[in-house]
Design brief:
Chain lengths: ~230, ~100
């Protein structure tokens, strides 16, 4: 069907689609909660991450580094690098949302992959605002509720390795990486970063391989694309 | 130490979000910046996958985690939702360790 024959989204359809995305995304907070307590964070620390950081890949990165025995501050630096993409999302969203003052300060917290995606596809600023707020709001509520459930459940389970939760961490990162492997440069950078990180594991303290490999792969990826 | 990391991450991630909403678009909206922002998550997430699956402190090990990752990859090829991917990997590793 050609694009111009598609029914134009209405406020109602945007709200419905946004809640759908919110439910699907929020639900995987369960895996974050369970993985986080399995990595050695308390239930309170886990819930604080979902409440205050509220950007999934960064949260997984911090607990992933802690789980591998790395310095938590190294984990925080990895988390911040991953969070830098939200700055670019903000740039795209600013003219659509048109918020100032406290509205802008509140909306900033809701900037994530999903709320951005559901906002920038709308045909006008009014629907862009609806898509952003409903998606961001429903993900926020469900992500935090699911994190708490996963953290409490994970703590009750006992030995995380017996339930394969350590294997779940790698799978979670692969799931977050998967949709980003669209181009050749991305795939090469990913492969190079993975191999370099493994090469660094025996040579450095945990946490450092991820950071170093990530940065070197970005630098090389930029050169490849230029040539 | 973990609390410090949690709070630094929280403050930093919020400021990164607010920065994008607050600065004039033309300052950061440069193709180079966009390429870097595009590659950072790819490289970091790939390194995180590798380290989570193969590293044990400072040693490399092949164990049930690798089987979990393989199952996760198959689930992703079959377009399974995120939760299914994560659960399938955990279940695979748990069953192998019985």
């Amino acid at each position: 069907m050609p694009a111009d024959e598609r029914p134009r989204p209405t406020r109602r359809s945007v709200v419905r689609d946004s809640i759908g995305v919110g439910v699907a995304t929020g639900a995987y907070g369960v895996s974050f909660g369970a993985i986080s307590v399995a990595s050695g964070l308390s239930v309170l620390q886990t819930c604080a991450l979902s409440l205050l950081v509220f950007t999934g890949a960064s949260q997984f990165a911090l607990v992933g580094v802690v789980a591998s025995g790395g310095n938590p501050i190294t984990g925080a630096v990895s988390a911040l690098l991953l969070g830098s993409r939200n700055t670019l999302y903000g740039l795209r969203l600013a003219p659509l949302l048109g918020f100032t003052g406290w509205r802008r300060a509140t909306a900033a917290h809701l900037i994530i992959d999903e709320s951005t995606a559901m906002s920038v596809v709308q045909p006008d600023p009014e629907l862009a605002r609806v898509g952003f707020l409903v998606t961001g709001g429903s993900v926020f509520v469900l992500w935090n509720a699911a994190t708490f459930a996963g953290a409490v459940g994970g703590e009750a389970l006992g030995d995380p390795r017996a339930y394969g939760l350590d294997a779940a961490v790698g799978a979670a990162f692969l799931g977050l990486l998967w949709p980003r492997l669209s181009g050749r440069t991305e795939r090469l950078a990913a492969l190079f970063a993975a191999l370099l990180a493994l090469g660094l594991v025996p040579l450095t303290t945990p946490g450092v391989p991820v950071l170093a490999a990530g940065l070197v792969a970005v630098a090389l990826g930029l050169r490849w694309r230029r040539s | 130490m973990i609390w410090t990391a949690v709070l630094v991450t929280a403050a930093g991630c919020y400021l990164l979000k607010l920065l994008g909403l607050s600065v004039p678009g033309r300052i950061l909206d440069h193709p180079f910046v966009r390429r870097v922002a595009d590659l950072i998550p790819v490289a970091l997430l790939a390194a995180l996958v590798a380290v989570q699956v193969f590293a044990d402190e400072t040693a490399l090990r092949f164990d049930a985690r690798l089987a979990g990752l393989a199952v996760a990859g198959v689930a992703l090829l079959l377009r399974a939702p995120f939760l299914v991917v994560v659960f399938a990997a955990a279940l695979t590793a748990a069953l192998l360790r019985l």
